Amino acid sequence: MSTAQLGVDAARVDARDVDEARRRLAERGAVVLTGLPATADALAVAAAHLYGERLRRLFPMRERASEDGGAVHLHADSFDQVVDIGGVPTRRRDPDEDAVLVQCVRPAPDGGRSFVLDAYRYLDTRADAELLDFLTGKDVDLYGAWAGLRGLPATPRVARHVEYTRTGRRIARRTDGAVPLHRDRDAGHITAMLDRFRDSVRAIEPELPRIGLAEGDILAIDNYRCWHGRDPHTGHRAVRILTLRTDDAR
């Protein structure tokens, strides 16, 4: 399979055509919803249209604005963040978010296009045996590189990059926060494999199809199946991001 074939050329579907949007998302792992205003309410409506009664939990929307922003490399959204609100522990992000919606609030005047990679295809056709053995067989601390950030738990989040839900759904993780577990005797090998994984994935990025988002467009992504990123841009760019869990989540 060529590098370009690993990419997802997400179809553009009117958000009101719920059946077609769901079909395209299941088929390709990503879809662009059109015809909605660039409001936070529209993002929640899009989630309801796509997942319906399968929605389990919406996490707080995040607004991201950047001026002359650099590249965002391929990744799957996930984070382990629990905060104290009025004495009540409240989860704001989840390591097992299985869907992400990115709404274009203001497109950049130049650059900033999105790209999506089908991680299942990557694992099945591009990862060599040694890398695949590492991704499926080695525990890492998923967010250890970000241990100083407020809101992260003191307890390491231990997992493998490729795992399965109890119903058999495959999870393909990709995060720059992963590090070896504390005092892991294979730390040197794990660090080398993490670097190799990062370099292998980034080498694919230039050949992936680009996805241009107009104001109000929403890029919906299967976060267990696909990794996404965006090109650098000049000028001002703004998006809203909504992550969620469905009945299919781990």
Automatic annotation (TrEMBL):
Lineage, highest ranks first = Bacteria, Bacillati, Actinomycetota, Actinomycetes, Pseudonocardiales
**SUPFAM superfamilies linked to this entry:** Clavaminate synthase-like
Q: What is the organism field in this record?
A: Actinokineospora fastidiosa
Gene3D superfamilies linked to this entry: Clavaminate synthase-like (3.60.130.10)
- Domain (TauD/TfdA-like) spans 7-237
Q: Which InterPro entries match?
A: TauD-like_sf, TauD/TfdA-like
Keyword list, A-Z: Iron, Oxidoreductase
Please list every transmembrane segment annotated in the UniProt record, as residue ranges: none
Is DNA-binding included in the keywords of this UniProt record?
Answer: no
Q: Which residues form a coiled coil?
A: none
Protein name as it appears in the record: TauD/TfdA-like domain-containing protein
Would I find Oxidoreductase among this entry's keywords? yes
One GO molecular function term of this record is: oxidoreductase activity
